Amino acid sequence: MxxxxxxxxxxxxxxxxxxxxxxxxxxxxxxxxxxxxxxxxGKSTLINIITNQLLCKSGDIKIFGKSPKEDISVLxxxxxVREKEFFQKEWxxxxxxxxxxxxxxxxxxDLQERLCKLFEINPKLLYKKLSRGMKTLVxxxxxICSNAPITIFDExxxxxxxxxxxxxxxxxxxxxxxxxxxxxxSTHLITEIEELLEKVVIIKDGxxxxxxxxxxxxxxxxxxxxxxxxxxxxxxxxxxxxxKSFGNNKTCSYYGNFNNEDLMLxxxxxxxxxxxxxxxxxxxxxxxxxxxxxx
Length: 295
Fold this sequence. Notes:
alpha/beta; Rossmann fold; six-stranded mixed beta sheet; four-stranded antiparallel beta sheet; 31% helix; elongated; disordered C terminus
């Protein structure tokens, strides 16, 4: 397993608010990641720290084994596509492409031209004249065509309709298959990218809650339903999140493995287990404390 990005014990706060809390996570080489979390969970802050645009209070970052603080040239291996880029508003689209292409030695100019035609983007237009969705597409085209060994998309579908979102995912996957690289997608549209991902990282309250291959994540994501008293006998009770109840029966969500004792109780007490989707896992993992059931 080759590591593209190593994040070790990274912490950061804004005034009294902790944004990243001793985060440890590795992003492997040539994998597609979903970086998931609510607004304010720490996703964008982590991206900024990885790209050396924000200095962390403590911890270390390594890109292909090198520290950006010690060797800034390693940042040439990263392309970041953000929800809001601060392009020169008076520039034409073609000038923006030209300017950004200089940063990436394997930039694909032919693909850039084809994507402009596909998405009906006129390179001669002023950037400020574009709609929000078209501005997003300009950023995404740069990200795809960069062929950077590490490409990070931070909310890459803002302002895009369903057709253009699907086109983007299809083109991104095709690009990845033709030129393997580490791709990190930070997004709220989890259902749309679920089939695209190889690994999943979920951040909550500045901590990593999930870091695994997507098949393993799905294998450990459950709805647990049954009699309230029966469910309360499970050793994982404190790790379960209330979903709904009907009379004396209730349903909870759970992420993790079962020990033999709990598996025996589940079988003997006729407790039902059903799989959760990645979207359902994310929603239930981020439920507010005040909706938890009384134990």
